[in-house]
Amino acid sequence: MASYTKFEYFNFTFPRPFVAHIEVNRASKMNAWIEPMWHTLKKIFDQLSEDPQVRAVILSGAGEKAFTAGLDVHEASTQGITTRNLKSDPARRAVYIRRHLLEFQSCLTTVEKCEKPVIIIMHGITIGLGIDLASCCDIRICTEDVMFAVKEVDIGLAADVGTLTRLPKIVGNYGWVKEVCLTARYFGAQEAMQVGFVGRLKVAELLASKSPVAVQSTKELLNFSRDHTIEDGLRYTGIWNSVAVQATDVQEAMLSGLQKRIPKFEKL
After folding, report:
1. Are residue 244 and residue 179 in the same domain, yes or no?
2. Confidence (pTM)
3. Where in the sequence is the domain holding 115, given as residue range(s)?
């Protein structure tokens, strides 16, 4: 745990065995994100992904008002990418901005690529970057007071770090996605649950009790199959499981069921 206490803007606890809890900690600014935060996020999830002491990750926000108010608009307008390289011609500025956006996208994608399942718990204001981040997580949970919005059109741009790509695949309803993205309107917990964006159960401890080989394999295969054909998914699953089924976890899981005891799995 000591190695996780050095990151600015994030708190760490380990509330249950093999469960890591990360809390975005900029509550005085409603957890609005500035550039150093998303670079730090990548470092954190790169480390969590390879940590054998972690089998499930919870992500939440500090303070009572918001999970996040999204991107810190003041910081972006005064120190952001559009304020840099102003002496360059439009083509060079465009290259510079594109590289910056791709880096930003990559930092958030690290959450999706984390080998461990990531559960996000959202409350209060959860807009803009909050939706981008939630869309990278495996399981989304929210409180009754949550207020969601894909807010980017209200600041004059299209969402550009993941929502427009991931959200339609999560809920499977392009009409609803287009409506909330084009209008930037708020929607609450009940609507989010109805369309399948969030669920009800808190499952981190349950996930951490399962075989880490099985859980991490399942996440990898689901993410791969989402973006490929059925045939590709079946082929990849066959190749993956030809190795994974040789894990001692399979025998341990079966024996523990027969012997009516809690299984014990090696770290991964």
Report:
1. no
2. 0.90
3. 2-206
For residues 80 and 34, what is the distance between their CA atoms, to the nearest angstrom?
Answer: 9
Integer angstrom CA distances of residue 226 from 168, 181, 222, 233, 260: 12, 22, 6, 8, 35
CA distances from 63 to 22, 50, 139, 141, 224 (A): 13, 29, 21, 17, 35
> What residues are paired with 210 via a beta bridge?
none
Query: Is residue 164 within 8 Å of residue 180, measured between CB atoms?
Result: no
Q: Which of 148, 112, 140 is nearest to 224 (CA)?
A: 112
189 shares a domain with 221: no
Helices (H) and strands (E) in the chain, counts: 11, 8
Query: What tens digit of pLDDT does each residue of 165-191 get?
Result: 999 999 999 999 999 999 999 999 999
Q: What percentage of the chain reaches a pLDDT higher than 90?
A: 78
Q: How many domains does the chain have?
A: 2
Residues 138 and 54 in one domain: yes
**All residues at 6 or more sequence positions from 76 whose CB lies less than 8 Å from its CB, including other chains:** 82
